[in-house]
Amino acid sequence: MLLFDLDGTLIDSNKVWQEVDVRFLAKRGLPWSQAYHEGVVHASLPAGARFTKEFCHLEDSEEDIVAEWLAMVRQSYGEEIPLKPGVRAFLSRCAHRGERMAVYTSCARPLCETALAHHGIDRCFEAVLYASELGVEKRSPEGFRIVAARLGVDPADCVFFDDSPLSCAGAREAGMVTVGVYDPMFAASEEEMRQSCHGYLRSFEEATLTPEGAFAFLSRD
User: Fold this and answer.
1) Considering the chain, what percentage of its residues have pLDDT values greater than 90?
2) Quick one: pLDDT at residue 73?
3) By the 8 A CB rule, do 131 and 106 touch?
4) Do the beta carbons of residue 65 and residue 52 sit within 8 Å?
5) In DSSP terms, which residues pair with 159 in a beta bridge?
6) Contact present, 39 and 47 (Cβ < 8 Å)
7) Are 192 and 165 a contacting pair, CB within 8 Å?
8) Please, are residues 14 and 184 in contact by the beta-carbon 8 Å criterion?
9) pLDDT tens readout for residues 52-77
10) In this structure, are residues 24 and 72 in contact, taking their beta carbons and an 8 Å threshold?
């Protein structure tokens, strides 16, 4: 089973969310900071809203914060955010050889469904699982175990692709094979991910198969 993150892995959306953070805070006269970024970058929308409310001492409800974020990005997910390089060709090759594929994401369902349908890759995946609907944070090892159970596979039979070092670490702790995917937001963690993941891709354009059909980028035990 091939399991993919969405934001920053299949689609080039991380920079959109950083722009949302800057605009959201500026509207309230607050500066963007690295401390704020670290609090929301790995979080689901509900958890990010909870952190934002507490960190920024806002009167806004968590529900209103999430609604405002969704309103700010909805059009981008339907029209502007591109696939990352090589994604379409890689998914096509994997589908052609009969690989089972699914998405596991902390993205909100309406945004994820819009993006996958817009790019016409929704048909590649037998399931899309949402961390917020499972009641876990995506980086939690328990979440990956739940996902594997929902898909009817052993975690050891899953190859998980993600740009986030914390998510990759959670998947590996759950027993999955992990492949780090480069994204500028986590550029500083590239060497860490190369050391901790079973494989690393600067781009899906590097995602080649061996003549025997194995994934050539999985070089670590």
Assistant:
1) 86
2) 92
3) yes
4) yes
5) 2, 177
6) no
7) yes
8) yes
9) 999 999 999 999 999 999 999 988 89
10) yes
DSSP H helices, 81-185, are 87-96, 109-118, 131-134, 141-151, 165-173
Beta bridge partners of 179: 161, 199
Give the pTM: 0.91
Question: What would the pLDDT profile of 29-43 be if each residue is shown by its tens digit?
Answer: 999 999 999 999 888
Burial track 71-107 (b if 16+ CB lie within 10 A, e otherwise): ebbeebbeeebebbeebbebbeebbeeeebbbbbbbb
Q: Tell me: pLDDT of 188 over 60.
A: yes
Query: What are all long-range contacts of 51-59, with beta carbons under 8 Å and residues at least 24 apart?
Result: 52/24, 56/25, 56/28, 56/30, 58/28
Q: Quick one: 156 exposed, middle or buried, by C-beta within 10 A (0-12, 13-18, 19+)?
A: exposed
* Pairwise CA distance, residues 174 & 140, whole Å: 9
pLDDT, the chain, mean: 93
At position 129, the amino acid (one-letter code) is L
